[in-house]
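Wed. Picked up where I left off yesterday with Fatty acid hydroxylase domain-containing protein. The coffee machine is broken again, so keeping this brief.
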Amino acid sequence: MSLFNATSAAGIGQAEQLYQGTDFSSLNWFEQQWVAWYIWIGNPIIATGLMSFLLHEIVYFGRCIPWIIIDAIPYFRKWKLQPDKVPTAQEQWECTKQVLFSHFTIELPAIWLFHPLAEAVGMSTWQVPFPSWKAMAPQVFFFFFFEDLFHFLAHRALHTGILYKHIHKLHHKYSAPFGLAAEYAHPAEVFILGTGTLAGPILYCAFARDLHIVTVYIWIVLRLFQAIDAHSGYDFPWSLQHIVPFWSGADHHDFHHMAFTNNYSTSFRWWDWACGTDNKYREYKKKVDAAKASMRNATKEQKEAIERKLMDEVEKEGIMAEAQAEARGVFKAKTQ
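Structure written out below (tokens, as returned):
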């Protein structure tokens, strides 16, 4: 009963209601802290909503900090995909303000309303013990698959007509993205693309009715890591895309910001490959590889010069494609 020593009488009463019949000695450390949190807050709705929002903020900005440090250290430029474009402190601060605005006006209400809706279709929140890893792993993979497909379709739509001009254009302010810019977007875009993140768990729960919110938290953490790392602007030899070939990663998404076109998916490369929306990206990579092969004996400066030349060509084409996208109607053919 040491778990309840610091709780008030009201808290103990709440514990008896929520956890009546639970063998607390059988819980692991994380499950005990989970119980303690719900007892301390005293209201499961407030406890879940507050924990969900705090998790999002701590993970988002916590994951961004290493990239801010890396951007400040010249040594890491050798792995930066666009080494001549390092975000300034002013750019990072402006980005942070927009991100915080979206977090509190769009994401906070969405996060707070998510768990009552999910609970209504069978999701567990305060309950213990947690599901096993064998149960959670396929659920998390489904969320990745669903979100990636949703994002691919929605992202392509955001690259057309008024949707781009009045919504998605803000996210493309930086042709060389950085970690903090992962959620630098118009509030409407945050809502649209965020739907893909939350709709997967809701739909899964509606049909399977065996989902625990701790699984959703694992999914959110992994999704935030994926989004921030994809916007980091760095491609290290140990980056995940070099281990998992179908993983998108920073190399894949950095090209999207640089060239405006191609590479619309988030986590995986397969939808872009299947739909041919990575053709320019693959052509660019071939040119870079061919240039490097032909310049094996060239100086470092010469190699960097040819890479900058190829980047400039792609970016110029992207500026033209962006202008065309703004002029294109929503239901007309989309830019590849």
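Quick read: The first helix runs from residue 9 to 18.
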